[in-house]
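Q: What does the predicted 3D structure of DUF1190 domain-containing protein look like?
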Amino acid sequence: MTDLADRPEEALAPRRKRSRHVALLLAGAAVLTLAGCEDDAVDAQAFPDLNSCIAAAQKDGLWFTEEDCRTQFAAAEQAHLETAPRYESQELCEQQHGQGACGADPAAGDPATAQQQGGGGFSFMPLLVGYMMGSMLSRGGGIFSQPMVRTPTGYSTPSGNQTFASNSGSGRVPATTFNRAPTTVGQPPMSRAQVAQRGGFGAGATARTATGGTRGLGG
């Protein structure tokens, strides 16, 4: 791994510091298993909850601040509510995301949403189990986030086009990891037949990704 290219720091928030070593880890954290090539990669850090992010900002002074933790956690919560996959039953959801990893869809309580979903049918979605922040500072951008959900073998972004072994740790990920997934609010929940046709969660990411493309495992 290589360090990010140097750039002027004057325009950045006073407490924000870029990591000098992209492999720098929190105590006890694991390196993220990357799902994609190193081309166009950015620094990323994943956390299982808001408090662990704040603790990291206070202790290590990486490229994000406590304010970034709070702002991006709120953004990840909203993105999860709007873009997480939705299923017609909890059983079907847990088959794709693991036992105990799903819950009732909070948006299904909205009458307008329920009507759009076919006359009041309920739906289920994977629970939010953490969030990932990515630094675009070296590109003149800011900090972006993605919610993380469980899969039977690890963790994933809502679109399913990036998978990781852990929801805690640092590493380099493709910049496209932070592309927003299409909204699923108001859409009919996926049926068993639809999930089977797509080959399971993540297999149909090409059809569900706003950019029209995905990255497979490896380079």
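A (community wiki): The structure tokens above were generated from the sequence. The chain is about 25% helix and 15% strand. The first helix runs from residue 50 to 60.
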